[in-house]
């Protein structure tokens, strides 16, 4: 039994070819599944940290964030992943983890300087998405790091409107007090 991950040689030309026709790389897969030791191994061997898959334009960091894999997010950031990288719809890693309620990942990204009020193609911020899903702890963290509680999206929606429309009373109460 091996205690350390076994990596292929950098000279293996097949190693970094896209895994699928959609340009999903081994690093995308390992990051999305939270396989920290595989992510570390792939990065050590020179896997492209900014690889972009074809359909959603997601990077490994997006996948680690949406799934809440904090150790993988940390490794990818240390390897130089763009903390504010945007996918096809303008979502950043912070949008993904805020919507999913992954507080530890949110705090890691904010601590590393992620743009707190970044907007997607609809004009929505990570705070709007956290409120839409009722993730009050994430909403508190975003506001504590300077998120605009009155930010309007392109249709005039605000975090309060999102939380109210979904019936998230605790989130509504928090936003009203802010």
UniProtKB/TrEMBL annotation:
InterPro entries given in the database record: Ankyrin_rpt, Ankyrin_rpt-contain_sf
Membrane-spanning residues: none
- Lineage start: Eukaryota, Metazoa, Ecdysozoa, Arthropoda, Crustacea
- PANTHER family, per this entry? ANKYRIN REPEAT FAMILY A (PTHR24124), CHROMOSOME UNDETERMINED SCAFFOLD_25, WHOLE GENOME SHOTGUN SEQUENCE (PTHR24124:SF14)
What would be one Pfam family of this protein? Ank_2
Q: What is this protein called?
A: Uncharacterized protein
Which keywords appear in this protein's UniProt record, sorted alphabetically?
ANK repeat, Repeat
Which species is this UniProt entry from? Cyprideis torosa
Q: Name its GO BP terms in alphabetical order.
A: regulation of gene expression
């Amino acid at each position: 039994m091996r205690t350390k991950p076994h990596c292929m040689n950098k000279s293996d030309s097949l190693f970094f070819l896209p895994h699928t026709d959609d340009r999903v790389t081994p690093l995308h897969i390992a990051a999305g599944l939270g396989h920290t030791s595989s992510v570390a191994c792939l990065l050590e061997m020179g896997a492209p940290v900014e690889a972009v898959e074809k359909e959603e334009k997601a990077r490994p960091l997006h996948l680690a964030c949406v799934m809440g894999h904090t150790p993988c997010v940390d490794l990818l950031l240390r390897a130089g992943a763009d903390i504010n990288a945007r996918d096809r719809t303008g979502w950043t890693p912070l949008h993904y983890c805020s919507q999913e309620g992954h507080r530890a990942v949110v705090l890691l990204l904010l601590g590393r300087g992620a743009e707190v009020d970044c907007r997607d193609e609809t004009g929505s911020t990570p705070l709007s998405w956290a409120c839409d899903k009722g993730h009050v702890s994430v909403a508190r963290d975003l506001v504590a790091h300077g998120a605009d509680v009155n930010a309007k999206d392109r249709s005039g929606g605000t975090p309060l409107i999102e939380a109210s429309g979904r019936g998230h009373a605790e989130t509504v109460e928090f936003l009203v007090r802010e």
